[in-house]
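MODEL INPUT / OUTPUT PAIR
PAIR INDEX: 1
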Amino acid sequence: MKLFTRNQLLRAAGLSLALSSTLLPQAASAARIENSVAVFSGLDKITGRITTFDVYVNETVQFGALQVTPKACYSRDQAEAQKIDGFVEVDEITLDRKIRRIFTGWMFADSPGLNAVEHPIYDVWLKDCKQNSDVPAPDKAAN
């Protein structure tokens, strides 16, 4: 068994700390981009039809009996591996016309089943985030 002196240990520890401190900031420098539009796909389980739709952040779009409202949608710089995630609220309009929250949380485009909306008729998942949409932006003056 080899024994090390206190100075040898401190030098080794100092070297590893110096190396880790120069490597960590580079690894953590991925630019997180805030987007104004979330792209969702929705499945109607009765018809088997999949629909892709754009929703502006903090706006609500109805898909069947569900109301989907993205609160945030993030992507990464084009130089980075894309990791699309968004914070989403989903409400169900019940048969007696009441609104019931069925999902609040983060959705990840890479893992659509991780935080899925559980509903007997509809599935909704986040596909992408983007800055612009062909869908006209909501009129803020009307609110």
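PAIR INDEX: 2
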Amino acid sequence: MRTLDVLDILQAQNAIRAADLVPVRWGRMSASPWTFYRGAAAVMAADLAARPHSGLTVQLCGDAHLLNFGLWATPERNLSFDLRDFDETLPGPFEWDVARLVTSIEVLAREHGGDAAGAVAQCLTAYRTQIARYAGAHVLDTWYDLIHVDRFLSVFTDADRPRAAAHIARKAQRRTHRGVLRKLTEIRDGRLRISEDPPIREHRPDGPADELFAHYRESLPDERRHLLDRFTPVDAVRQVVGVGSVGMRVHLLLLQGRDTTDPLFLQIKQAGESVYEPFCGSSRYVAHGRRVIEGKRLVQSATDVFVGWASARGHDYYVRQFRDMKVIAHGELIAPRLPEFATACGHVLARSHARSGDPVAIDAYLGRGRAFDDGMTAFASAYADQNAVDHARLVEAIGAGVLPTASGW
């Protein structure tokens, strides 16, 4: 039984957000039950916390829905499939991540089609199978386990694999720093500048990018500072990104190396309290940007060499490379191959939990029966129903003029 109203939970998150972007957040979340689900991690956190839990702690991703898994380049420039979003990361019960993932399968399938039942079953089977494998593995083998793109592609059928491989290769080629340079920059007054696309991307005189950059540099190890110092910041814009992140202050920073053909793009993103902190306790890190980055390093097998954190003007931020060969799926692309994609996600989630938690204890908790799988399957269906009700509540509030909204961007 809920003790808090869904709209109250969501509105409380706006306290640290840019006020002019809050209507955009409502607009994006109201588009469908799927977009609502992506933006309502705080609602689900409160609901999960009201239920009994295992007490088996891992470093939660915190928002392990399907689109928060993707491919990007390791420091060795190999494509790896892994979790990609850690805004809500915090130590907590392992099954909360599992519940977030399997429910996302159900919600996405209702919107875009796909075999929800089969995908949930295969996701849970993959999670269970890999946890059992990690329970018997050497610690270093688990720590270094990386799901290379070829391993990711192995879950697809022989017929689908070449098409998926070609799509990934095309995307990865385009989503590089030089690709961003071609797409998002221009020469203005003889200088390289990020092109504007208001209100998605625009220059702001009040942006704290310079101040943040200096603080961010101090968070890097010495050898990374040496690398960063080979680049010079030349421009910055404010960005509007995602669904749940809308309203959080995000800056795209352009740095230049030897010349205008040698770019580095960094994304500086505001970090607030994890949605799980009211239930799991405060993070051990005072700065929420550091909480995000330390969680990312713990969960991922390989992490961007430029990740760091900063604080300025009363807000915390984390920093990462922008795009850097990142290949992120869309719901309509996943739907026809939902069981295969869900299998890969279940594998990754098990790996992340084995790195940060006790796979032997989790394996024992899962057992060899059907109780855990059946319980999670029933939860996914029931919570997808609740999510639809919550989405309708948001749409109703917008229609009644209770919440302001902006759409179209």
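PAIR 2 NOTE: The chain has a mean pLDDT of 93.
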